[in-house]
Amino acid sequence: MPELYMPTITTFAAGLQGIVFTALSLMVVAERSRTRVNLGSGETPEAASPDARATKLYMAVRAHGNFAEYVPLILVLTALIEIHTGPTLLVKSLAFGLVLARLLHPIGIRLKAFNPYRGAGFVLTISILGVASGKLIMLALG
Fold first, then answer.
1. Is residue 113 left, alpha or beta, with left meaning phi > 0 and alpha meaning psi from -120 to 50?
2. Of 61, 80, 84, 139, which has the most beta carbons under 10 Å away?
3. Do residues 19 and 73 make contact, with C-beta atoms less than 8 angstroms apart?
4. Are 81 and 8 in contact (CB under 8 A)?
5. What is the pLDDT of residues 19-63, one digit of tens each?
6. Please, which residues have CB within 8 angstroms of residue 85's CB and are 6 or more apart in sequence?
7. 3-state secondary structure of 127
8. How far is residue 34's CA from residue 108's CA, in Å, rounded to a whole number?
9. How far apart are CA 40 and CA 86, in angstroms?
10. What's the number of CA atoms in the CB half-sphere (13 Å) around residue 123?
11. What's the whole-model pTM score?
């Protein structure tokens, strides 16, 4: 079997983008905390309509959007690590942690107040993003 070329440029760029995304995510969390906005950017449906269906729809949309914002990037980062290192304990931990985090977070979003499910899902997700990004940068730099 021919040896596989290791995509070091893509690895380095993906690692840097992961760091940027981590920083942007933490800025959103800090601003939400400062402004006491629990979900989204304050445009919650409760302000416009007391209809509980609108609130459930908003929560579902945000859970879906949050998944779409994090999972593709983290899967690319993890795949690049696996291309470089094989199926190491780190790769397995990142993959398992991502699945766990992305199951916990939408459970927490459905609960109105801050809760351990949402918090644990976010902390685990952002940790995986940061670790994978850092590892990719180290792999690219040799």
1. beta
2. 80
3. no
4. no
5. 999 999 999 989 888 888 877 777 766 655 666 777 788 888 888
6. 91, 139
7. helix
8. 20
9. 38
10. 7
11. 0.84
Burial group, residue 103, by CB count within 10 angstroms (0-12, 13-18, 19+)? exposed
Specify the residue for token string 């729809």.
57
Residue identified by tokens 């609960």 is: 111
Closest to 139 measured CA to CA, from 2, 11, 5, 1: 11
The label of the residue with tokens 């893509």 reads: 10
Tokens of 91: 């790769």
3-state secondary structure of 42: coil
* Tokens 């998944």 sit on residue: 67
Does residue 28 sit in helix, strand or coil? helix
